[in-house]
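re the bet — no i am not wrong, look at it urself. input seq straight from the record:
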Amino acid sequence: MLCFFPRWPRPGLAFLIVALAGTAFCGPNPSAAAETVVKRLAQDAAYVLDAPAARLESQTLDLYGPEEKPETPWPVVLFVHGGAWRFGDKAMMGTKPAAFVGHGYLLASANYRLAEPVTPREQAQDVARAVRWLHDHAREHGGDPDRIFLMGHSAGAHLAALVGTDERLLGECGLGPEAVRGVVLLDGAGYDVPKQIAAARLERLQGLYKRAFGDDERAQREASPVAHVVAGKHFPPFLIFHVGQRRDSREQSELLAGKLRDAGGQATTAHEPEKNHLTLNREFGLAGDGPTAKVFEFLDRVPAGK
């Protein structure tokens, strides 16, 4: 069994990052796919080859798959970690590698730039560049470049949603919007940033969003996935989770899903009343986990091919 130890992006922040990302790193793996032998097919692969040395580690990904290369290419899921757009690491994967590989998927996990003054939209550019790397390199690792999915938690859900709705991000990488076959969002609440800031009941929460997105409402709108959902565009299908009694996540999730459906896209929301923001992510891949089953049912329904 692989045991995942994170490379902390900043010393002294371990406790805060764990609290924000809510992911177990090591220990017994009670996943239904616990018997799966997972191999790290690529580690710290740079998806921006011309990045300055100071940014190189921030623009890398890991790729997990089976010990033996599959005869038929497997679909690929790119996971985007959370952490308030300022913390987190691609190594914080818990049971996800065993769960996805056990179900016949390659799993990638990407770092993205965290240090200020990088903006969330620039972070979404990093995610799109990681998609480009997978599109170019998936086949050599046994993956299907025509079946790449995005999945993100918290701030990572916002970034995945932005890549899935603003076609310019993939376009800047030479890809069309169909390069992403589906998007799974785990309890995000930044899909309409100005609305989220205005509705924030706690000054601390409002400050978190303003620190990430700034005070300029036009820039906040540009970084909001809902702002890019208009009729006549292509969108991949979305599966959007929200948890417990978290009002902002529910409202933002239903807002994005409604916008997608009104624009002719496919979007399903899933309320998980027994989960909270941390456990939805941390327990993904455990045996009997309901959201895990829903994600695989969603991914398996997407037809193969372009």
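see?? Residues 74 and 143 are 5 Å apart (CA to CA). told u. also The chain is about 35% helix and 20% strand. so pay up
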